[in-house]
Amino acid sequence: MEDQRTSQNDNDNRRLYNPYQDLQIPIQNIYKLPTSPEFLFQEESVAQRRSWGENLTYYTGIGYLSGAVAGAAKGLVDGVKASEPGDTVKLRINRILNASGHTGRKFGNRAGVIGLMYAGLESGIVAVRDTDDVVNSVVAGLGTGALYRAAAGVRSAAVAGAIGGVVVGAAVTAKQVLKRYVPI
Protein backbone atom coordinates (compact mmCIF):
# COMPACT_ATOMS: atom_id res chain seq x y z
CA MET A 1 0.00 0.00 0.00
CA GLU A 2 2.81 2.38 0.88
CA ASP A 3 4.56 1.59 -2.46
CA GLN A 4 1.44 2.66 -4.37
CA ARG A 5 1.25 5.99 -2.49
CA THR A 6 4.95 6.65 -3.16
CA SER A 7 4.60 5.98 -6.90
CA GLN A 8 1.45 8.15 -7.02
CA ASN A 9 3.30 11.02 -5.27
CA ASP A 10 6.14 10.66 -7.80
CA ASN A 11 3.63 10.99 -10.67
CA ASP A 12 2.02 14.06 -9.07
CA ASN A 13 5.37 15.83 -8.76
CA ARG A 14 6.27 15.41 -12.42
CA ARG A 15 5.83 18.28 -14.83
CA LEU A 16 4.53 17.36 -18.29
CA TYR A 17 6.61 18.50 -21.22
CA ASN A 18 4.88 20.98 -23.52
CA PRO A 19 6.85 21.49 -26.76
CA TYR A 20 4.86 24.67 -27.59
CA GLN A 21 5.42 26.55 -24.32
CA ASP A 22 8.14 28.84 -25.72
CA LEU A 23 6.16 29.82 -28.81
CA GLN A 24 3.68 31.94 -26.83
CA ILE A 25 0.80 30.64 -28.90
CA PRO A 26 -2.37 29.31 -27.33
CA ILE A 27 -2.16 25.59 -27.97
CA GLN A 28 -5.78 25.28 -29.05
CA ASN A 29 -5.12 27.56 -32.07
CA ILE A 30 -2.42 25.27 -33.45
CA TYR A 31 -4.80 22.40 -34.22
CA LYS A 32 -7.70 24.35 -35.73
CA LEU A 33 -7.53 22.89 -39.21
CA PRO A 34 -9.82 23.99 -42.05
CA THR A 35 -12.86 21.79 -42.59
CA SER A 36 -13.39 22.68 -46.25
CA PRO A 37 -11.31 20.97 -48.93
CA GLU A 38 -8.41 22.92 -50.35
CA PHE A 39 -7.78 23.16 -54.08
CA LEU A 40 -4.74 24.30 -55.99
CA PHE A 41 -6.80 25.84 -58.80
CA GLN A 42 -10.21 27.50 -58.65
CA GLU A 43 -11.52 25.27 -61.48
CA GLU A 44 -11.02 22.20 -59.29
CA SER A 45 -13.34 23.58 -56.63
CA VAL A 46 -16.17 24.12 -59.12
CA ALA A 47 -16.21 20.54 -60.44
CA GLN A 48 -17.30 18.17 -57.72
CA ARG A 49 -15.87 15.05 -59.27
CA ARG A 50 -13.18 12.51 -58.52
CA SER A 51 -10.12 12.40 -60.77
CA TRP A 52 -9.67 9.53 -63.22
CA GLY A 53 -7.20 7.82 -60.90
CA GLU A 54 -9.53 8.09 -57.93
CA ASN A 55 -12.38 6.79 -60.11
CA LEU A 56 -10.26 3.85 -61.22
CA THR A 57 -9.35 2.94 -57.67
CA TYR A 58 -12.87 3.49 -56.33
CA TYR A 59 -14.81 1.49 -58.93
CA THR A 60 -12.28 -1.34 -59.07
CA GLY A 61 -12.21 -1.65 -55.28
CA ILE A 62 -15.97 -1.43 -54.84
CA GLY A 63 -16.46 -3.94 -57.65
CA TYR A 64 -14.00 -6.42 -56.20
CA LEU A 65 -15.31 -6.08 -52.67
CA SER A 66 -18.97 -6.45 -53.60
CA GLY A 67 -18.22 -9.34 -55.96
CA ALA A 68 -16.14 -11.12 -53.34
CA VAL A 69 -18.86 -10.76 -50.71
CA ALA A 70 -21.60 -11.96 -53.08
CA GLY A 71 -19.41 -14.84 -54.27
CA ALA A 72 -18.56 -15.86 -50.73
CA ALA A 73 -22.27 -15.93 -49.86
CA LYS A 74 -23.03 -18.07 -52.91
CA GLY A 75 -20.07 -20.31 -52.07
CA LEU A 76 -21.39 -20.69 -48.53
CA VAL A 77 -24.73 -21.92 -49.85
CA ASP A 78 -23.02 -24.25 -52.34
CA GLY A 79 -20.73 -25.61 -49.62
CA VAL A 80 -23.66 -26.34 -47.32
CA LYS A 81 -25.53 -28.08 -50.17
CA ALA A 82 -22.45 -30.14 -51.09
CA SER A 83 -22.05 -31.62 -47.62
CA GLU A 84 -22.92 -35.29 -47.39
CA PRO A 85 -24.67 -37.05 -44.50
CA GLY A 86 -21.56 -38.96 -43.36
CA ASP A 87 -19.24 -35.93 -43.27
CA THR A 88 -17.57 -34.86 -40.07
CA VAL A 89 -17.82 -31.27 -38.82
CA LYS A 90 -14.24 -30.53 -39.93
CA LEU A 91 -14.97 -31.83 -43.43
CA ARG A 92 -18.16 -29.75 -43.70
CA ILE A 93 -16.35 -26.60 -42.56
CA ASN A 94 -13.56 -27.34 -45.05
CA ARG A 95 -16.06 -27.72 -47.91
CA ILE A 96 -17.81 -24.47 -46.95
CA LEU A 97 -14.54 -22.52 -46.68
CA ASN A 98 -13.19 -23.89 -49.96
CA ALA A 99 -16.42 -23.17 -51.83
CA SER A 100 -16.71 -19.67 -50.33
CA GLY A 101 -13.11 -18.79 -51.12
CA HIS A 102 -13.21 -20.14 -54.67
CA THR A 103 -16.50 -18.52 -55.64
CA GLY A 104 -15.66 -15.27 -53.80
CA ARG A 105 -12.38 -14.88 -55.69
CA LYS A 106 -14.02 -15.67 -59.01
CA PHE A 107 -16.89 -13.21 -58.57
CA GLY A 108 -14.61 -10.56 -57.04
CA ASN A 109 -12.19 -10.68 -59.96
CA ARG A 110 -15.00 -10.43 -62.50
CA ALA A 111 -16.66 -7.49 -60.76
CA GLY A 112 -13.29 -5.78 -60.26
CA VAL A 113 -12.52 -6.03 -63.99
CA ILE A 114 -15.96 -4.63 -64.79
CA GLY A 115 -15.33 -1.72 -62.40
CA LEU A 116 -11.91 -1.12 -63.98
CA MET A 117 -13.36 -1.00 -67.49
CA TYR A 118 -16.26 1.23 -66.41
CA ALA A 119 -13.96 3.72 -64.68
CA GLY A 120 -11.65 3.88 -67.69
CA LEU A 121 -14.50 4.37 -70.15
CA GLU A 122 -16.28 6.95 -68.03
CA SER A 123 -13.11 8.98 -67.47
CA GLY A 124 -12.33 8.81 -71.19
CA ILE A 125 -15.82 9.95 -72.14
CA VAL A 126 -15.69 12.84 -69.66
CA ALA A 127 -12.33 13.91 -71.11
CA VAL A 128 -13.60 13.76 -74.70
CA ARG A 129 -16.98 15.45 -74.10
CA ASP A 130 -15.65 17.93 -71.52
CA THR A 131 -18.96 17.76 -69.65
CA ASP A 132 -20.09 15.86 -66.60
CA ASP A 133 -23.62 14.52 -66.91
CA VAL A 134 -25.73 11.36 -66.80
CA VAL A 135 -25.05 10.57 -70.46
CA ASN A 136 -21.39 9.86 -69.70
CA SER A 137 -22.28 7.29 -67.06
CA VAL A 138 -24.91 5.52 -69.17
CA VAL A 139 -22.68 5.37 -72.27
CA ALA A 140 -19.83 4.06 -70.11
CA GLY A 141 -22.19 1.37 -68.77
CA LEU A 142 -23.21 0.43 -72.32
CA GLY A 143 -19.59 0.26 -73.43
CA THR A 144 -18.49 -1.71 -70.40
CA GLY A 145 -21.16 -4.37 -70.88
CA ALA A 146 -20.45 -4.66 -74.58
CA LEU A 147 -16.69 -4.76 -74.09
CA TYR A 148 -16.91 -7.32 -71.27
CA ARG A 149 -18.96 -9.76 -73.34
CA ALA A 150 -17.40 -8.98 -76.75
CA ALA A 151 -15.56 -12.30 -76.95
CA ALA A 152 -18.84 -14.23 -76.68
CA GLY A 153 -20.21 -12.71 -79.89
CA VAL A 154 -22.04 -9.68 -81.19
CA ARG A 155 -25.44 -10.65 -79.82
CA SER A 156 -24.09 -11.36 -76.35
CA ALA A 157 -22.15 -8.08 -76.38
CA ALA A 158 -25.27 -6.14 -77.41
CA VAL A 159 -27.37 -7.70 -74.66
CA ALA A 160 -24.66 -7.12 -72.04
CA GLY A 161 -24.24 -3.54 -73.24
CA ALA A 162 -27.97 -2.90 -72.90
CA ILE A 163 -27.99 -4.44 -69.43
CA GLY A 164 -24.96 -2.34 -68.42
CA GLY A 165 -26.61 0.85 -69.65
CA VAL A 166 -29.88 0.10 -67.84
CA VAL A 167 -28.12 -0.81 -64.60
CA VAL A 168 -25.99 2.35 -64.63
CA GLY A 169 -29.02 4.46 -65.58
CA ALA A 170 -30.99 3.00 -62.67
CA ALA A 171 -28.08 3.57 -60.29
CA VAL A 172 -27.64 7.19 -61.37
CA THR A 173 -31.40 7.79 -61.08
CA ALA A 174 -31.47 6.22 -57.62
CA LYS A 175 -28.53 8.41 -56.56
CA GLN A 176 -30.33 11.55 -57.76
CA VAL A 177 -33.53 10.52 -55.95
CA LEU A 178 -31.59 9.90 -52.75
CA LYS A 179 -29.87 13.28 -53.02
CA ARG A 180 -33.19 15.01 -53.52
CA TYR A 181 -35.46 13.26 -51.03
CA VAL A 182 -33.22 11.89 -48.29
CA PRO A 183 -31.83 14.58 -46.00
CA ILE A 184 -28.21 13.89 -45.13
Automatic annotation (TrEMBL):
Protein name: Uncharacterized protein
One of the record's GO cellular component terms: TIM23 mitochondrial import inner membrane translocase complex
Species this protein is from: Vitis rotundifolia (Muscadine grape)
UniProt-listed Pfam families: Tim17
Keyword Membrane carried by entry: yes
Subcellular location: Membrane
Keyword entries, A-Z: Membrane, Transmembrane, Transmembrane helix
Ranges in coiled-coil conformation: none
Annotated membrane topology: Multi-pass membrane protein
GO molecular function, one term: protein transmembrane transporter activity
Keyword Acyltransferase: no
Listed GO biological process terms: protein import into mitochondrial matrix
